[in-house]
Design a protein that fits this description.
It is a single chain. By secondary structure, this protein is α+β, with helices and mostly antiparallel strands. The protein folds into three domains: 63 residues, no CATH class; 45 residues, no CATH class; 54 residues. The chain is built from five helices and nine strands. The radius of gyration is 20 Å and the shape is globular.
């Protein structure tokens, strides 16, 4: 049985670094959008497809001793092979062809928050995705302004703020980064 994956012409691999979980396999991504695992003991390699998240992005999750850490293929490939566009503000990776499973480095670009919003709008338009507007939001602009004020003060944990407003800590993180409700300013 073959231990190594046969490389495609000019294919290069970059190791995915996991910081929290000590794993039994190493994971790699290539600039051609492929991913593989390599058993640390046997050195046997295996191509992996990844698991799509609810938004369609392919990911790999390492688990050991109750700990887990997730890495997204497109972000790892962009970080390793499409570095030229990354900056302090350009922290989001998008797919030029709007196909979230096409993770070739040539299809990935770094964008800032404004670029991400424009990209998402164009993607919805191109793919004919309708955005449903709900009149039953959990948050209002005034609540978000209060959340931003609390985050700025740093007196309450993100978990406590999330519980107070009946939302997730993920939503709190997105508000803090400006991904959601970016136009709202913190209350004075």
């Amino acid at each position: 049985m073959e231990k190594s994956i046969k490389n495609l012409p000019r294919e290069k691999w970059s190791k995915i670094k996991f910081s929290r979980v000590k794993i039994q396999k190493d994971y790699y991504v290539s600039q051609l959008g492929r991913a593989k695992s390599k058993d640390i003991n046997t050195k046997k390699e295996r191509l992996i497809k990844g698991t799509p998240d609810q938004r369609g992005y392919l990911k790999v999750t390492a688990r050991k001793d109750g700990e887990q850490e997730t890495k997204f293929f497109h972000k790892e490939i962009a970080a390793a092979f499409a570095k030229s566009g990354k900056s302090r503000k350009k922290i989001y990776v998008v797919h030029k062809d709007y196909d979230k499973t096409n993770n070739k480095a040539s299809n990935l670009i770094w964008v800032d928050l404004e670029g991400l919003n424009k990209y998402n709008e164009k993607r919805r338009e191109k793919l004919g995705i309708k955005v449903k507007k709900s009149k039953y939001y959990k948050l209002t602009e005034s609540k978000v302004a209060m959340i931003k004020k609390m985050l700025k003060q740093g007196k309450k944990t993100k978990k406590a703020i999330a519980e107070k407003y009946n939302i997730t800590t993920t939503q709190i993180n997105r508000i803090e980064r400006g991904e959601n409700w970016g136009h709202v300013k913190a209350k004075a």
